[in-house]
Amino acid sequence: MASKRLGKQTIKLAVPPSIISAYTIVGPKEGEGPLAEYFDSILKDDYFGEDSWEKAESKMLREAVKNAIKLSGKNDSDIDYLLAGDLLNQIISSSFAARELQIPFLGLYGACSTMAESLSVGSMLIDGGYADTIVCVTSSHFSSAERQYRFPLEQGVQRPPYAQWTVTGSGASVLSAAGKGPYITYITTGKVIDFGIKDGNNMGAAMAPAAADTISAHLKETGRSPGYYDLIVTGDLATVGREITIDLLKKEGYYIEPVYNDCGIMIFDGKKQDTHSGGSGCGCSASVLNGYLYKEMQKGNLNKILFIATGALLSPISAWQGESIPSIAHAIAIERTIQGVS
What topology is assigned to 183-335 in CATH? Predict the structure, then answer.
C-alpha cells in the first residue's frame, strides 16, 4: 500500500527535502521588471555571447546549474541527479547542457510546468532514499520559443492583447535530504485537462482549467484551506488565466483571490513593458520561484506557499493539424519550517 498517498493525486513526503540553494539568470527585459533585485544574474543581451538564441538558452541553463551547486557548497560530484527540461524540440537546452555537466541526467517535459515537475520527481527520489542531492532546473528564451511555436521575429507579427511574452530566463534549485529549509512537504500531481482551446496565443485560457483542477485536488486531499498559505502562486497564467482560475475555483467552493498571484503577472510591469497579458515560458515560474519566492522565504516574509507550475502540452505539429491544447499543472507545497525539524 502506498502509505504516503493522500488520495488520487497528492502525496505527503515523510522526509521533506530542503531547497538548500537556488540561482536565477534572466534576460535584459526581465531585468527591467519589478523583480530585478531578486535575480542573481541579468544578461546584457539575449545572445549571451553565443551565435544563436538556442545556444544562449542552453548556456543559461548550464550556468544556472553550476552556480546553484556552487551556492549550495557542494561539488558536481555530490549531485546524484540532474532533472531538467525546456520548451525546445527534444529538450535540447537541457540535454546539451547535461552533455557538458556530466551529472546523471533525467530529461523531463511538462512544458511550462517543468519546474514543479522536476521538484516533484526530485523530492520523491530523495524521500524514497534513492538520492541525497539533486539539481532541478528549466529554462526558456523569448526568441527561441517564438521561432519554434509562432512566427519568425523578422516578420514583426502583431500579437493579440491576450498573448503572453515568453520569459528569457533559467532557474535552478538544489534539493538535499539534509538542510534547514525551506522544505517541500506535499506534492500534487496534475492531470491532463483540455477545454478545447485551439488558439496558440491564448495560453492562459488553455492552462487555467488544469491549474484550478490541481489546486482543488490539493486542497481537498490535504484538508487545507486557501488561507493556510501565505501565497498561492501559479506558473504563468498571466492576467487572462488568473481570472479564469479564480472563477473556476469559486464554483468548487474555494475563494483563493486574497492569497493568489501568478508568476506571469509578477515578473513584468505590463503597462510599462508592453507584455500584454504577462509572462510565460518554463523560465517564468523558474525565475520567480528561485529568485523572488525563495529569497522572500529565506527572509521570513513568506512562510508557506503553494507553487503550481502550468504547462500547455502542444507542439507546432499538433497546432498545424488543428488540435486543441491539452494542459497540465503540478503543485508543490513549500514551507519555511516544519514540525519536528529545526
Answer: Peroxisomal Thiolase; Chain A, domain 1 (3.40.47)
Among the listed residues 79, 257, 262, 279, the one whose alpha carbon sits nearest the alpha carbon of residue 163 = 279
Domain 17-176 has CATH 3.40.720.10: no
Quickly tell me which residue has 485536488 as its cell: 217
Residue ranges of the chain that CATH labels 3.40.47.40: 17-176, 183-335
For 280-332, the pLDDT digits (tens) are 999 999 999 999 999 999 999 999 999 999 999 999 899 889 999 999 999 99
Three cell numbers at 230? 501565505
The span from the CA of 261 to the CA of 266, in Å, is: 8
CA angle 186, 313, 263 (to 5 degrees): 55
Mean per-residue pLDDT, 153-160: 62
Strands 304-312 and 327-335 come out as antiparallel
The radius of gyration of the chain from alpha carbons, rounded to an integer in Å, stands at 18
Identity at 207, one-letter amino acid code: M
